[in-house]
Every structure is written in structure tokens, then in C-alpha cells.
């Protein structure tokens, strides 16, 4: 692997960073907690590939159901009101975790990285919950802030990561923030025209 200051030419190691795993967590929680449309195994497998999961990525209907349960539990961390509540949710989830902290390279197929799941062949739901709790814990530890939140835009409900500095985010995207600003502007104009 050729090293370029600040960037790895081969992203094998960067896909295991806390930020990369947190972004995968964000995407999976949003995909798996939607009720309409319900995610298919193929869609979840594609999302896992998009976030750097090595082949083969075989996801069954049962895997999706277990991952949905994990995603709903993780959603509570994002929905928590403040740092102490987010930490309480993370601690609750970590306490029910299946395995001790360990390092793995998946038999040399990836760089060394931490796992909290029971084994390298753990079910997808166990893996999602363990890896997500670990990365969110690292983010809280590193930043001393909640790892993110739930979008304030009515009807959205997506979770988002708060990785930047400055004013805490309220929306999952610029699109939701802009839509809310336009709606507030319209309400203000309508109220002033009376």
C-alpha cells in the first residue's frame, strides 16, 4: 500500500475507521428502519458492498429481520436527548453484546480492526449491533458529544451523524434544512399578509 500524507492509496484501512463504520451505521439504520418500502436482502447486500464489505455478501430475509431489530435498537442512540442519554443507550446495548473486544483481520483479508461480535462469522444482526456500538462509542469518547440525531424535518425521520464542529445539526441533509427554511418563510409571509 502506498502512503500519501492524509490519504491511503488503498482504502482497505480507511473503510475500517470509526467514521467509515459510523457512516455505514447511519446508512443501514436509515435503510432498515423504513417501513415503506421494506428493505430487501438484495438492497441491504448492495448497501453493505457500497460501504466496503468484502465479497461474498450473502444476506437472507432472516438476516434482514435481525439487522432491522439491531437498527431499531441503534436508532435509540441517535434519538437520545443529549450526551448522557446517548451514553446510557450505548451502555445498555454494549451490556447485551455477545463478545469481548478483539482484533481481527478476517484471515488476512483486511487490515487489523476491532470487533465486539462473537466471531468473524457472526450473524449480520449481531455484527451490525456490535460494530455500530463500537464505532459510536469511539465517536462519543473522542468528541464528548452525541454521535448524531434524528432529522427535525417533519416526515423525514432519518438519522444523521454529527461529525463536524460548530453548531449542532438538526437535519439529515441540506435538502431537509432548505425545505424547512422555505416552509418557515412561507408561514411567516402568510402570517404577515393578514
Automatic annotation (TrEMBL):
InterPro entries: ABATE (IPR010852), ABATE_dom_sf (IPR023286), Znf_CGNR (IPR021005). Residues 150-187 form the Zinc finger CGNR domain. Pfam families: ABATE (PF07336), zf-CGNR (PF11706). It comes from the Bacteria. PANTHER family: BLL6575 PROTEIN. This is Zinc finger CGNR domain-containing protein. It comes from Streptomyces roseolilacinus.
Amino acid at each position: 500500500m502506498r502512503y500519501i500524507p492524509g490519504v491511503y492509496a488503498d482504502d482497505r484501512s480507511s473503510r475500517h475507521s470509526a467514521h467509515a463504520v459510523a457512516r455505514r451505521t447511519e446508512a443501514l439504520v436509515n435503510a432498515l428502519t423504513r417501513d415503506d418500502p421494506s428493505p430487501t436482502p438484495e438492497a441491504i447486500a448492495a448497501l453493505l458492498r457500497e460501504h466496503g464489505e468484502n465479497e461474498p455478501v450473502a444476506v437472507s430475509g432472516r438476516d434482514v429481520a435481525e439487522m432491522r431489530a439491531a437498527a431499531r435498537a441503534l436508532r435509540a442512540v441517535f434519538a437520545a436527548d443529549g450526551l448522557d442519554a446517548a451514553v446510557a443507550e450505548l451502555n445498555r446495548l454494549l451490556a447485551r453484546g455477545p463478545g469481548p473486544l478483539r482484533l481481527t483481520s478476517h484471515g488476512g483479508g483486511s487490515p487489523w480492526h476491532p470487533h465486539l461480535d462473537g466471531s468473524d462469522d457472526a450473524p449480520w444482526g449481531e455484527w451490525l449491533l456490535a460494530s455500530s456500538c463500537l464505532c459510536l462509542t469511539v465517536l462519543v469518547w473522542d468528541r464528548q458529544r452525541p454521535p448524531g440525531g434524528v432529522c427535525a424535518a417533519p416526515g423525514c425521520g432519518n438519522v444523521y451523524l454529527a461529525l463536524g464542529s460548530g453548531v449542532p445539526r438538526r437535519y439529515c441533509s441540506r435538502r431537509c434544512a432548505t425545505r424547512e427554511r422555505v416552509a418557515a418563510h412561507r408561514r411567516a409571509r402568510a402570517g404577515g399578509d393578514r
